[in-house]
Specification:
With about 160 residues, this protein is α+β, with helices and mostly antiparallel strands. It has a single domain, classed as Alpha-Beta Complex (Nucleoside Triphosphate Pyrophosphohydrolase). Helix content is about 15%, strand content about 50%. The chain is built from 2 helices and 8 strands, in the order βββββαβββα. A 4-stranded mixed sheet has the order 5-1-7-6. A hairpin with a 5-residue loop joins strand 3 and strand 4.
């Protein structure tokens, strides 16, 4: 079975009791909220990745204020042409602070909307599990940088 590793960096940006999220559009058209972020380019520093991705997906300039942790997910996936493969996603989660720019949606990317959401309203959102993982890392600041409770959450 073939293997694929994807390394990505994401930002937890919380301001005035609200979190910045981007709405991810899956290939089947399903839309769920996620943390702004995405895949690293070869040779790119992860902190530079998250700053670039926040800008692309939300229109905001951001800075990294802390490394919150790393999340590792491994699953079996299927490609139409080549069949099953072993997919490993390594997600580096940072705390970010917005420093400028204007909120706007991404054009031509994997997200179609960016918005601030009240922290108390997050459990009601259609979201990926990474949102819960990021919030757990942000709230708990685990010394080992690993979320435990959020893994039992949704998708």
């Amino acid at each position: 079975m073939s293997r694929q590793l994807r390394v990505a960096a994401y930002a937890v940006c919380v301001r005035d009791g609200r979190i910045l999220l981007a709405r991810w559009v899956a290939r089947d058209g399903t839309r769920r909220w996620t943390l702004p972020g995405g895949g690293m380019d070869h040779g790119e520093d992860p902190a530079d990745t998250v700053v670039r991705e926040v800008a692309e997906e939300t229109g905001y300039a951001a800075e990294v204020t802390a490394l919150l942790g790393v999340d590792s997910v491994r699953e079996r996936r299927t490609r139409r042409v080549s069949g099953d493969f072993d997919f490993h996603s390594l997600r580096i989660v940072y705390e970010g602070r917005i420093t400028g720019g204007e909120l706007r949606p991404e054009t031509g990317g994997s997200t179609d909307l960016a918005a601030w959401h009240e922290l108390a309203a997050v459990p009601e959102l259609e979201r990926v599990a990474l949102v819960d993982i990021g919030l757990e890392l942000w709230r708990e600041r685990p010394p080992a940088g690993r979320a435990i409770g959020a893994r039992a959450g949704n998708g």
